[in-house]
Structure formats: structure tokens, C-alpha cells
Write a structure and sequence with these properties.
The protein is mainly alpha-helical. The protein is built from eleven helices and two strands; from the N terminus they run ααααααββααααα.
Length: 278
């Protein structure tokens, strides 16, 4: 395979990764890591390092558009980033010493969980009932635009959401996938935040979380500029496209297709991990 062919395939895969990460808040690594390990047979640690850079690009590309739209809860995101960055550094340190086959199996399981999360019913929690003193003290409650009107919402169960965010950070550092599904689960299910806000705030947080763990991979020499360059370009293009699509279009069927693809890739990762092929 020539360098040009390799770069073009990687660009196309990175574009899909950025689109998926932007639409669902999952981060670009869910496509990048299987692409590099299963198709190009890249060592999974280098794939994770590249995916972390891709996650930073995804977050940077889509988060700016969501912040401009006024959907992202910046204050909540910065508060929860304390938990995710702490967990990310711990996860990255664990990954350096863990068997690559074990990492692949865990990665596949998390991917399947992420795919299942896409099929759950999304609820817009907009009740004005204030049930969290901590959220009020930290001023985490907010509003977001919906059909031309500003809708207010209250943040609940701050402590539970914070703990889930720390676990999401560990998974991000360990697997390099941004752990957006866990972040959205924490904010949507535990903290009862409207789905659009949880998705966009997750995108806002992913870049900071990935940057924290990427430092560890960089120090260990697991980030390759030759892999990162086409991935970042493709992911940025996909992230900008996805952010426009989420605001203006019904992406239900697109998410279903992506979930099926992710599940297939996850099963391949688990199979190869069990058989010691990664």
C-alpha cells in the first residue's frame, strides 16, 4: 500500500470518526482505533495515542459551534472536567503497563455499551424543581435555546454525576475513546440534564480529558505524527459537519447505522483480543 492510499483511507475513516463523535458525543476514537488496529495492524497503544489527538480535534471542532449556539453548559463542563482529567491521567498510566489484548477486550465491551446507549430514549429534562443544593451553590443550572425559546433546567445528583465522570476519565485514558457515552450517561440519566445539553457539554469536555491522558502517551512515545496528521484533518472536517447536522437535522437513522457499525467493530476487537492478535 502506498503512502497516498494509506493517507486517503485514514482521512476517510477520520472523517466518519469526527462525524460520529460530533453527533453522539462519543469521541472519534470509536472508529479510529478499530481502523488502525484491524485494518492497518498498528499497535493498539499507538492507535490509542492517535485517537486521543483525534478526540481533541473532535472536541475543538464541534464544541466551538455548540458554544456559539448557546447549548453547552460551560460552567458545568469545567466543573466536571476536574473529575475526568484526574481519571484520565490514572487511566493512561494503567494502560501503559496493561496487556494490549486486555485493553482490546475492554475497548470492545465499552464500544458495545456505547452503541446500546444510542438506542435509549432521549428525554428532555426541563423541570424547574430545584433538588440539588450543590448545583445551586456552584451555579450549575442553566438554559438552552429550543425552537426559538429559552428553556431552563436544573442539575440534579451532582455527586453521583461527578463520580461517574471520574470513571469516564479512567476509561478515556485507558482506551483513548473520549468515553462520551459515560459522560452523556452521567449528565442525562444521573444529573437529569436535557439530552442536547449533555451531548454538547460532553463534546466540550472531551478535548480537555483527552489532552490530560495524551501527555502520558506522548512521554512514552506512543503518539506518531505520521498517523496523527491525516486523522486530525479528517476528524476536524467531520466534527464541523456533524455539529451542523445535529442542530438542523433528524439524525435518528444515521445514529442507528453508526451503532450497528460500532457493534461489529467491537466484536472484532474482542475476538482479536481473546485470540491474542493485537
Amino acid at each position: 500500500m502506498t503512502i497516498l492510499t494509506f493517507t486517503l483511507i485514514l482521512l476517510a475513516g477520520a472523517f466518519l470518526a469526527g462525524l460520529l463523535g460530533s453527533l453522539t458525543g462519543l469521541g472519534g476514537g470509536v472508529v479510529i482505533i478499530p481502523l488502525l488496529t484491524l485494518v492497518f495492524h498498528v499497535d493498539i497503544r499507538y492507535a490509542i495515542g492517535t485517537a486521543l489527538i483525534a478526540s481533541i480535534a473532535t472536541s475543538s471542532g464541534s464544541a466551538s459551534a455548540y458554544v456559539k449556539e448557546g447549548i453547552t453548559n460551560i460552567r458545568l463542563g469545567m466543573f466536571l472536567e476536574i473529575a475526568t482529567t484526574t481519571g484520565a491521567v490514572a487511566g493512561a498510566l494503567i494502560a501503559v503497563y496493561m496487556s494490549t489484548n486486555v485493553v482490546a477486550i475492554i475497548f470492545g465491551c465499552v464500544l458495545i455499551f456505547s452503541a446500546l446507549m444510542n438506542f435509549r430514549k432521549k428525554q428532555e429534562h426541563t423541570s424547574d424543581e430545584d433538588v440539588s443544593r450543590l448545583a445551586k451553590q456552584l451555579r450549575l443550572n442553566g438554559t438552552y435555546p429550543n425552537n426559538g425559546a429559552m428553556v431552563s433546567y436544573k442539575v440534579r445528583h451532582v455527586s453521583g454525576g461527578y463520580c461517574m465522570m471520574m470513571f469516564a476519565g479512567v476509561m478515556s485514558g485507558l482506551l483513548g475513546i473520549g468515553s462520551g457515552a459515560l459522560k452523556v450517561l452521567a449528565m442525562d440519566t444521573i444529573m437529569r440534564i436535557p439530552f442536547k445539553v449533555s451531548t454538547t457539554t460532553s463534546n466540550f469536555m472531551i478535548g480537555v480529558t483527552a489532552a490530560a491522558s495524551a501527555v502520558v502517551y506522548l512521554q512514552r512515545g506512543y503518539i506518531s505524527p505520521g498517523l496523527c496528521m491525516p486523522v486530525v484533518l479528517g476528524v476536524l472536517a467531520g466534527a464541523f459537519g456533524g455539529s451542523k447536522l445535529l442542530v438542523k437535522a433528524n439524525v435518528k437513522w444515521l445514529r442507528i447505522v453508526f451503532s450497528v457499525v460500532i457493534t461489529f467493530l467491537a466484536l472484532q476487537m474482542i475476538y482479536n483480543g481473546i485470540n491474542g492478535k493485537l
